[in-house]
Amino acid sequence: GAVVSQHPSRVICKSGTSVKIECRSLDFQATTMFWYRQFPKQSLMLMATSNEGSKATYEQGVEKDKFLINHASLTLSTLTVTSAHPEDSSFYICSARPPAEAEGYTFGSGTRLTVV
Amino acid sequence: AQKITQTQPGMFVQEKEAVTLDCTYDTSDQSYGLFWYKQPSSGEMIFLIYQGSYDEQNATEGRYSLNFQKARKSANLVISASQLGDSAMYFCAMRDQGGSEKLVFGKGTKLTVNP
Fold it and tell me: Could you tell me which of A41, A21, A23, A27 has the C-alpha nearest to residue A112?
């Protein structure tokens, strides 16, 4: 089935620095990818929709300048958390819709970000 | 606006028994897709089963089946012959309409399988 690879799986960074998270579709072309954030014991909250070759669509309340999304190719989308602060510590996970919806949207393995 | 409701924060089941996890949805669209995912403590999202709004029959995948009642807008997940490894969070989700194709998730149900 469709596979999405996400890196890194864990990252610890200092407050004020930026962190880039990569999401790659390995065996299919994903013109659209989705970025979610999940706090402990909560559900997945959609942050933005990443569109290949165009600007990302952000959900209400998500800061565009803080969470930079780039989808430069059909297989790669990146999320950069800029000037990270401890409140940005969370689990970030990407997803892509496979060619056939019945196969289920494929998710990356997630990135656990800790800002110290 | 779409909405997914999972009313059971936690469920317990004995090993080898069946369990039903509830999910109701709200949409004015005629065409939609419903999904169930399992999230173990590792955090990965594991796709379990899919039901399209036009599918006449309930979806089944191994020990998983989806009790789809369109008129009641419910899409309950049934897990048969529970195993210890089934202990995890379970999320119901619906594909958004309006061209974005994004998935909207319910709050989830934590399932614990007891030996």
Answer: A21
Which residues of chain B lie closer than 8 angstroms to A34, CB-CB?
Answer: 102-103
Give the torsion sign (CA, B50, A57, A95, B19).
negative
The alpha carbon dihedral of B83, B85, B90, B92 has a sign of negative
Nearest to B17 by CA among B61, B74, B79: B79
Tell the residue number behind the tokens 């297989």, with chain if given.
A75
Tokens describing residue B77: 């997940």
Q: If DSSP codes are grouped into helix, strand and coil, which group holds residue A103?
A: helix
Q: Chain A interface residues facing chain B, Cβ-Cβ under 8 Å?
A: 32, 34, 38, 42-44, 46, 49, 57, 91, 93, 95, 97, 101-107, 109-110, 112
Select from B64, B70, B50, B71 the least CA-distant residue to B18.
Answer: B64
Chain B residue numbers with beta carbons less than 8 Å from the beta carbon of A110 are 43-45
pLDDT tens, residue order, chain A (116 aa): 688 999 999 999 999 999 999 999 998 888 899 999 999 999 999 999 998 888 899 999 999 999 999 998 889 999 999 999 999 999 999 999 888 889 999 999 999 999 99
